[in-house]
């Protein structure tokens, strides 16, 4: 019988030991990265869910008043407020790129300036958006929505105008805190306000019988409590390095900041408007009241689950921007892999939960048998949407952290508005499939966008992205550019070394 040489056996054992060591190192590295993600994602999830639940609670209370009132508040929240919320969140999202990369580069002195610039821009933006609230009723009629729904929705929209200005101050402060991974106080504020909001809705809508007006009042009060508490936290001395008081520098280099803010807003709005247009398309079907209620409540639930995945969106945005700002491209790439895996697992859990409770979750929104039946029929479409939306926000978070807002906006236009919506219209109206056809088109667009973004993440040169991040910090930090790179940091080289 042949005997293996002793040297060969020792070498084999060494290879096995090396493989074991590599596995242990990778396991430890994955655990540490997952821990960093969850430290940001957990409070971000709670914050996002709490803030979204302010509107969610209002819909739940109003839904028991009647189907007409439910349709009206759903249209306002999904069409008008969805449009405005997307613009404000997008404008504030420029801070995710700039503040996150500044933190990675240890340029804490610029964070307070960035925050003030963003607040100036979002407040001015809110002035331009106010007419959308004032003219909600004629806008909805122009879009061929039901006249009764449009009239009631118009009144409600005017009552909730104060929330628009609350959004303008809320999102910049959120991004300022997230970039520094200091968000637990913000989380506690939002949870406390949500509990107060539930009680306030019960008092104003149910107990005192103020109906839609009561829901609007509760929303206004709750949102401004959130904004005031968060702003007091920022300026009360808890951030000595990043907040040094109000500065005239907030009004300098505004145009460069506006361009990045607009790119962020367009990228995000194209995403959120996609669902808004779906609501409008359903409203153009025959006998739309029940169908609008069913689709609106389904999308409300989907958006609630989206708030959870947006926690991972915030976390990966912070991780990628911090690591690129610090010149560590391999760490940024590894963060992306861990975030996608984690969020996908969470998405699978919610997908299964929706299918398992398809006959029960609609009862949270309505008591009408027709609405319950129609909503239950859409559960499989909702489950598929939830699964895709567990992955997609991660990819968007990477895009924001790396500063790819312009290219992602183009991808959104092609996948959603050139492919998804036209396909939905053909299936819904021409093929006469109705709501199912419209939603199928939406799913196709979402799937295509997800695949394109995943391919982009796979092919990108992360070392170059770290170089662009370094130049972006100098550009937006009001230091002169050394090589003429565009403000978005889309090309050029950096004289500084990048740590891999």
TrEMBL record:
Extent of Polar residues compositional bias: 478-493
Keywords associated with the record: Membrane, Transmembrane, Transmembrane helix
Coiled-coil region(s): none
GO (cellular component) term, any one: membrane
Localization per record: Membrane
Region annotated Disordered, chain positions: 478-500
Highest rank taxon of the organism: Eukaryota
Record's keyword annotation contains Transmembrane: yes
Main location as per UniProt: membrane
Segments crossing the lipid bilayer: 37-62, 82-99, 120-140, 183-205, 221-239, 260-283, 303-322, 334-358, 378-402, 409-431, 437-455
NCBIfam families for this protein: matE
Protein name: Protein DETOXIFICATION
Organism: Nicotiana tabacum (Common tobacco)
Lineage: Eukaryota, Viridiplantae, Streptophyta, Embryophyta, Tracheophyta
Gene: LOC107765473
